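Hey everyone, long-time lurker, first post.

I ran two proteins through the pipeline my lab uses and got sequence/structure pairs for each. Pasting them in order. The first:
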Amino acid sequence: MLPPHTPTPRTAWVRVALAANHLHHHTLGEAIGRHPRQQLTWLGLLALPLVLPLSIPGMATTVAAFCVLVAASIFLGRCLPLPCWLQRRRLPGKLSEPLARHVATLTARLARISQPRLLRLSDVRSRRFNGVMLALSGLAMMTPVPMVSFDNVVPALATVLLAWGLRVRDGRMLLAGYVTTVLAWGYVVLLWWLGAELLLWLLAMPAQLGW
């Protein structure tokens, strides 16, 4: 369950930046802890590289599984343990250093404009809804999209907005996360529909050519 108190925004963003500096020192099981705020910090950090045009084999599935697990913890109001295979995962070392630099720059900017607001969106009464939205963003990230590269960008952005919006209790960031989650599923459904239409067209082509 998310804490009822209102955090100091600058302190919260400093903690996010500090966590980014230790990405390569820990496995997921060692790093994320058992407190929802700590888990949300790491979820936002781990989803952030997927917003960039990078291809890291297996990372989208790992982050999506972690996202769904954190979402279930928030929905149920209690921390759930990570599966063993997820506890052992590490972020690639070549990515951790540049990501830490980008996170430090990003969090410094966010600390100036982000603040606890629209607190009803992140209070205890909203935890089930937030858990569902976070799970939807993770499932969208996990859903494979045929014939499209970097298909995780929009779902990953939704995950970052929701995770960090809950972490610092910024209602505007949460609202952006809700909208982006809906867009992510619209994006996934549209690409699957276009893929199905293309497949049907290819199957019908021999008959049209008289083969």
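...and the second, right after it:
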Amino acid sequence: MELRGETVVLAPVAEAHVPELRRIVSTVEVRERWGSVDGSPTWPFDEPGVVCFAVLEDGVVRGLVQYGEEADPMYRHASVDVFLDPVAHGRGLGMDTVRTMARHLVHDRGHHRLVIDPAADNAAAIRCYKAVGFREVGIMRRYERDTEGGGWHDGLLMDLLAEDLT
């Protein structure tokens, strides 16, 4: 099922999207946040339980957005992750992508709470997520391995309740 935003269309990732997604994830800006996928010949189909969509603008692949779901009824929620081609940054595509995915997860999948966890120093991503309605929960110290594998960096836990979705 395709999801339509104001500008973007989110389409389930197909084999035809993979070469462009691999090019985008290999750009310096994306790779420094996501790390390398070179060691995974089946990426982005290699994580069971994660649902991946290609972000399309006028039919052109601009990035990837994915979600995972916690099914335990006591803690049911969804998590979101996204990257966009650096040539598409600063044009509102990230906000449209995250908002479109959030609406799907709230309205179609029935989630009352969503989480996202950017690196604490990723100011542009944090601004984008706040514009959609995500709020800062707190810093997760030494949360994520640096992409070079030499250390750790802090992450920012953010969440969005269904009623906060803009």
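Reply from user beta_strand_b:
Welcome! Quick read of the second one: The first strand starts at residue 3 and ends at 4. The chain is about 25% helix and 35% strand.
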